[in-house]
């Protein structure tokens, strides 16, 4: 299983790396781990138009999102996944890293359901 690690590169751009138990790592456009990942990753792939991992040389996901779009996408993805996977927890923590520092947002399962319903009604 690979695990994502996030931060910023030398140019100040956000970056995500996946790594595994034997020390292999790869820079990717986004990542997910643990329960629900089989539900979440295909959704992210479709929304972010990720290039095929079979393309050589490897390419990062190129769909740019502003902060509120990215946060809304994460909320939508987890709202959907919590409806289908009973092992996903009852609370979501979104950590936003940018030049202003680190900010955290929290949502509980009930709020995720309300958010999901609101998104469907738009």
From TrEMBL:
SUPFAM superfamilies: N-terminal nucleophile aminohydrolases (Ntn hydrolases). InterPro entries: Ntn_hydrolases_N, Proteasome_suB-type. It is found in: Nucleus. GO terms for cellular component: cytoplasm; nucleus; proteasome core complex. Keywords: Cytoplasm, Proteasome. One of its GO terms (biological process) is proteolysis involved in protein catabolic process. This is Proteasome subunit beta type-1-like isoform X6. The lineage of its organism: Eukaryota, Viridiplantae, Streptophyta, Embryophyta, Tracheophyta.
């Amino acid at each position: 299983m690979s695990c994502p690690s996030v931060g910023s590169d030398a140019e100040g751009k956000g970056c995500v790396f996946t790594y595994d138990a034997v020390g292999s790592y790869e820079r990717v456009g986004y990542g997910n781990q643990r329960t629900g990942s089989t539900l979440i990753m295909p959704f992210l792939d479709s929304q972010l138009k990720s290039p095929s991992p079979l393309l050589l040389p490897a390419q990062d996901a190129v769909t740019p999102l502003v902060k509120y779009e990215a946060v809304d996408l994460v909320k939508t993805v987890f709202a959907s996944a919590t409806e289908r996977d009973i092992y996903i927890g009852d609370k979501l923590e979104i950590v936003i890293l940018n030049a202003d520092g680190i900010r955290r947002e929290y949502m509980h399962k009930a709020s995720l359901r309300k958010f999901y319903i609101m998104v469907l009604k738009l």
